[in-house]
Design brief:
Chain lengths: ~550, ~325
């Protein structure tokens, strides 16, 4: 059962683009708590609101933080092109937006000091902060807001965030420090979905002078922003050195003098470096190393549920036998998920039988694992298989190293084969090919799933209705289609929860996928690193961090 | 000799052009597209098409090829599709790191392998020979990946003597530079030390049975002179061939060591750019590597003439 104040938030009509909020409530800062939480709800971040961090202890300052990042290179630091969470976590410290979402999931003024919303919700007028400078010394003004808008919106630039600007009719400069956004239709989500520094990225303010001087290619490597840290040195693949920007517009921030981020693709090395103190912060820890780090008195491990699901997807378009529900359900029932989690994922995932993750607290049902139609039952699986009369079946299993699924596939294969007369041929491909083939439906079975599902719509609506964005596996059930649309429109949160559960029950029973688990996110740092808050947004704030 | 050199250099250019052309077209024939990799799953088809256009990837292959050759002729290798950095800068940063590891690895392996090989040959089938042989096979059979991680655990985590990862340029001081290189160099040098040691041993054994060694001894030369001047110098021919190959392999095959120690060297740059289908970087790196191989082979051939004056090139 969800905390009461969260449930109450759903007393608005989701079809009302203003979420039942008045223009005064939306104007800010400060925005009312009610407005803040409704915005979060509307933009799918509400599930995370229950994990609001505790207030920070008194802070010190200074130091040179050395961090290890689990990726091979910071390929793109230009917000118009950033598509990798790990790069966002770092780039968030170089740039500013008009607003940003802090670790408490509250929209905060950043380059905008305050804003007003017209009564019809279509005119948003922002008063910009004065005296802000870019890292190269150029002053920030309304022109930079217009430039950023035009750049992201220019199809020739090819920004992947252009669709986020689709609802904007015009951006007008009303003065050197005043801009107005006119929307095609009113939208309360505008603030977070379009204007936030991260994750929106579409209006994260970029430097025109720097872009013109160094060109768009070099800007991806050594960008210039107005954020707390500026790029001192970037040797691609070797290190990204950020130094304190002395002219940063918030007094007293950042606290660190310097941050050096080393990309360390080899997890073993990253962990060794954290243990020796060569790096003091790791953005991601793989499951097999957790016992080692948890036992280290100099290290703190933080964790949180990852909003997403993993499953064995059964493609009905390419394998005829999968069109029989009994075959699919037999496969789902034949998977011993506890063993899969233990052997395939070092016990550091959450076994489950449905798409809704624990991160969506309001909708999460822990009992699914044992009560769902997909719950492990090898005898029932064999019976169903026999009833369907398919005999033996040989299919390919497409997988990649993504999310530890190669190892998972190697464990899943014998688990399934010892229950059913099925043979899985594991086909391992590069991530680039893997995602392409998943979206195109070019596979027989696939071990994979979804990520960044902050709301049930991301988990269900994107995947299971007939012809949905990621329904590349030929699943169709009109009843599910109807339920998913109904929950999308439902005003009452209790009713919405019930509808989501009914849709999830039907999906589990139809078994278009054999759901296996949800991931858990881990990061680690040395005890001397103070002030870091594990935010559920991808904009990790290093400006509050200092070294003891 | 000069004529020979000119001929060899001409061949070298031809080989490199062939390699470059082959790589250019093979890269475009394999599935996967750099722009989709770069833009990720959020990208709209329009954005992908636009970026392909901006990067000139929508032009016919032969047009791209001619442009690339033209720019190559002017010394411009282009920019990375994925990260936007100039390929020359990327390779210029990566090459010294790999080169430093390779030189140090070679130095370590020679310092161990040559004396061990000589002793092994002289004391054939005795205890020192057996020890050297067992150690050599151990060195040969330990995978780099595993050895590197064990070395990190022992020397960085347990003893705390050496850093676990990264590279520090020489400009930040000799000792910090060397400290960061020791473990990777030792890791990559081990297998080659074993090969060079075994090669030295068998070449020495062969030479030691040659008539001119008996003659030298009959002349009453001191054993030291017989071994080092007469035997070793003649035994070195096959060893130098192996060293040449080993050094080339150290330069290009360091990808495992570079991944383990998080050093962005040539091998890692190449492998990562292949995974990302980063055409310009792959092309530049392969060209550089082909150049290294051709150059090393030429160097080895020239070295032969100094070691064995009977070898002459016309």
């Amino acid at each position: 059962m969800a905390p009461h104040h969260l449930v109450d938030l759903w007393d608005f009509d989701p079809r009302d683009p203003m979420l039942g909020l008045t223009a005064a409530e939306l104007s800010g800062p400060p925005m009312s708590r009610r407005a803040v939480l409704r915005l979060l709800a509307a933009t799918g971040l509400l599930g995370l609101a229950a994990s609001l961090p505790p207030p920070l202890a008194a802070a010190g300052r200074g130091g040179h933080l050395k961090a290890g990042w689990n990726l091979d290179q910071f390929a793109i630091l230009d917000p118009a092109f950033i598509n990798v969470t790990e790069q966002m976590q770092a780039a968030a410290n170089i740039f500013s937006g008009l607003v940003h979402i802090d670790a408490a999931l509250t929209p905060q003024p950043e380059l905008a000091e305050r804003w007003e919303v017209s009564a019809d919700g279509r005119q948003w007028t922002f008063q910009l902060r004065r005296g802000v400078r870019f890292h190269d010394g150029a002053p920030f003004s309304a022109d930079d807001v217009l430039f950023t808008y035009q750049r992201t919106n220019d199809p020739k630039v090819g920004s992947i965030h252009r669709p986020r600007l689709a609802n904007i009719e015009a951006v007008t400069k009303l003065g050197a420090y005043e801009v107005q956004f006119t929307l095609k239709s009113p939208s309360a989500a505008f603030l977070i979905a379009t204007l936030s520094r991260f994750p929106a990225r579409a209006m994260t303010i970029v430097s025109r002078t720097a872009l013109e001087k160094m060109g768009p290619q070099q800007y991806k490597v050594t960008p210039v922003g107005t954020g707390p840290f500026r790029v001192k040195e970037h040797i691609v693949g070797q290190r990204l050195v950020l130094e304190r920007f002395p002219d940063y517009f918030i007094e007293g921030k950042p606290k660190l003098d310097m941050v050096t981020i080393v990309p360390v693709p080899e997890a073993e090395t990253a962990v060794a470096a954290l243990r020796t103190g060569e790096v003091q912060f790791l953005n991601n820890v793989q499951a097999q190393f957790l016992p080692l780090l948890e036992a280290d008195p100099g290290v703190t491990v933080l964790q949180g549920p990852d909003p997403g699901f993993q499953a064995l997807i059964l493609n009905q378009k390419t394998v005829l036998a999968f069109r029989d529900r009994r075959v699919r359900l037999a496969i789902a029932k034949a998977i011993d998920r506890e063993t899969l989690a233990k052997r395939g994922y070092f016990g550091r995932v959450q076994p489950d039988t449905g798409p809704i993750p624990a991160a969506q607290k309001l909708y999460w049902r822990p009992e699914k694992l044992t009560t769902s139609p997909q719950a492990y039952d090898p005898e029932a699986a064999k019976r169903l298989w026999q009833e369907a009369g398919v005999g033996s079946l040989k299919v390919k299993l497409l997988t990649s190293v993504v999310r530890g699924n190669l190892r998972g596939a190697q464990v899943l294969k014998p688990l399934l084969e010892q229950v059913l007369p099925i043979t899985l041929d594991i086909e391992q491909v590069d991530p680039s090919v893997y995602f392409k083939r998943q979206v195109a439906g070019d596979f027989e079975t696939l071990l994979g799933g979804s990520g960044a599902d902050l709301d049930p719509n991301d988990s269900i609506r994107d995947f299971f209705p007939t012809g949905a964005k990621f329904n590349s596996f030929g699943y169709s059930n009109p009843e599910v289609d109807a339920l998913v649309e109904q929950q999308f429109r439902e005003l009452d949160v209790q009713k919405r929860i019930a509808l989501v559960h009914r849709a999830e029950d039907l999906i589990m029973a139809d078994a278009p996928m054999a759901f296996t688990h949800h991931l858990i996110e881990y990061l680690a740092m040395r005890k001397e690193v103070k002030g870091f808050v594990f935010a559920p947004t991808p904009a990790w704030d290093l400006s509050e961090v200092w070294l003891a | 000799m000069r004529r020979y050199l000119c001929k060899r250099l001409l061949y070298a250019v031809l080989v490199m052009w062939g390699v470059a052309t082959l790589v250019f077209f093979m890269l475009r024939a394999i599935p996967g597209d750099p722009v989709s990799v770069m833009l990720g799953p959020e990208a709209t088809p329009e954005a992908v098409a636009q970026l392909r256009h901006n990067l000139g990837l929508d032009r016919p292959f032969y047009v791209q090829y001619v442009f690339w050759l033209w720019n190559l002729g002017r010394g411009d290798l282009g920019r990375s599709i994925v990260n936007g950095e100039r390929v020359l800068v990327l390779l210029g940063q990566a090459a010294p790191r790999t080169f430093a590891i390779a030189v140090l690895a070679l130095a370590i392996s020679l310092a161990v392998a040559l004396p061990a090989g000589i002793v092994s040959a002289l004391k054939k089938h005795t205890f020192p020979d057996h020890v050297a042989t067992v150690v050599a096979f151990l060195g040969l059979s330990m995978p780099n990946f595993w050895l590197g991680i064990v070395l990190i655990l022992v020397f960085a985590v347990k003893l705390g003597w050496l850093p676990a990862l990264g590279y520090v340029p020489l400009s930040e001081g000799f000792w910090p530079w060397l400290r960061h290189l020791l473990l990777p160099a030792f890791t990559s040098g081990t297998a080659f030390a074993a090969i060079i040691m075994r090669m030295t041993r068998s070449a020495m054994l062969e030479v030691l049975h040659a008539p001119y060694i008996s003659t030298a001894r009959a002349k009453g030369l001191r054993e030291r002179v017989v071994i080092l001047k007469h035997a070793l110098k003649n035994a070195l021919i096959p060893v130098i061939t192996v060293i040449g190959i080993a050094f080339s392999l150290l330069l290009v095959g360091a990808v495992v060591v570079e991944e383990v120690f998080a050093i962005q060297g040539l091998g890692r740059t190449l492998v990562r750019s292949i995974i990302n289908r980063d055409f310009p970087v792959v092309q530049g790196a392969i060209l550089l590597i082909a150049g290294i191989f051709v150059g090393m082979n030429l160097l080895v051939d020239i070295l032969y003439t100094y070691i064995n004056p009977r070898i002459r090139y016309e």
